């Protein structure tokens, strides 16, 4: 691969874009991209959700790695190296399909992350804290808010700081993943030697359609994010060389970092005992009894001595891991929203890069405020139930994330046609086939999120989410579909508010 000139900018690029891009600083090198991607893709908050589906989950994890994860890596490697402008996915979507499509798509891409940070990630961090430092007892409301608000705003502060400082959070987060997941995997082996493991027959790994419907959305949610470093494209030192390097290496590491702990949980805990929220944390506590502690007759694990010390360290690494997941996504999606602001697809007020920090501070603060509102509303509406809060916010985060890729994946063949002379250091084989297959998979997952089992037995016993009955299928459809439609309409509103910027550039 050789570096070439960047792709030409559209002739109607606003002058505001040129002014804001001059404030950006190049701090993003090859290994920064690799660590950033590991924090982006490998999220420990959903490991328990996947493992809770049983041995079949491991099969689908591997299948989707082949048919979805690897092809998406190939697709994003070309887009990221050929069109490495700041804003990444927004730039690709808007150049392929226009600024209106880019605005709607980018709003979905952005809103997911403050919702995820203030909901799923914050409550996952609380669960790790209460499990290892609070005797498993839930925090009172004041303590809950104190912990989670500090968690959210530490993440926002990391996103505000200049990238040469803020990038250390993803770096620390990547190493926390290596240590936490590596230690857990080794400990599972030791635990198995001492106590034996849950056995599985080959039939337990057999894939089913119901399992696919239940797993494909969350597995795809885990397997997206290769494009995120390109949201800071103008801050990369050599994107045409470093983007493919980071993508292909992180792809291999990510599959291992997901597959090994999922298999470890399945071997240690009975499936009926695995919860989406606490499955991974519970498995850590149980296997760490090999260093000191015991498992009671009721299955409750108690850590003592070295087991307690290592458990506490694992909890700290878990919290750092979920924090770094939130920080990397906030860093990336906030930059994409800021770019749409100075490109005429969002309010110009949001499209401002701080001269002091070189970051989109206004969007960062907005993300923090949205996270805070989501945290408070979700906690109050679920009456403080951590499990309900986790499930409700995760479903919304997964749906908005996946729908945004309906604009990103089809962009590759369109940009091949519209910009045939743009230098491409890396070229994806069969771009039309790969783009079509990935788009259809995302479309299928998105439909199954709002209408589980559609095409077989919509909301039947094998498809309805836990706690929902067949009679409530209409209500469930509304709870999933209404927020999605509302976010799309807000994307249109953002596009309309960007009209003064577009008019100044001679574009409607």
Give short descriptive properties of this protein:
two-stranded antiparallel ribbon; 508 residues; single chain; 1% strand; globular; mainly alpha; 68% helix
Structure explained in plain terms:
The protein is mainly α and 508 residues long. Helices cover 68% and strands 1% of the residues. A two-stranded antiparallel ribbon has the order 1-2. Helix 2 runs parallel beside helix 11, helix 7 runs antiparallel to helix 14 and helix 10 crosses helix 17. The longest helix has 38 residues.
Give the structure's gist in a few sentences.
By secondary structure, the protein is mostly helical. 68% of the residues lie in helices and 1% in strands. It has helices spanning 15-21, 30-41, 47-51, 55-82, 89-97, 99-133, 141-160, 163-166, 168-195, 209-223, 239-268, 279-287, 305-342, 361-381, 386-408, 411-418, 431-450, 473-497, 499-504, and strands at 293-295, 301-303.
Number of E-state strands? 2
Outline the biggest β-sheet. Answer: 2 strands, antiparallel
Briefly note the structural class of the backbone: mainly alpha
Mean pLDDT, rounded to whole units?
85
| Sheet with most strands: strand arrangement | 1-2
Poorly predicted residue ranges:
1-8
How far apart are the first and last residues' alpha carbons, in Å? 38 Å
What string, H for helix and E for strand, traces the elements in order?
HHHHHHHHHHHHEEHHHHHHH
Radius of gyration: 22 Å
Helical stretch tally = 19
Into which percentage range does the β-strand content fall? under 5%
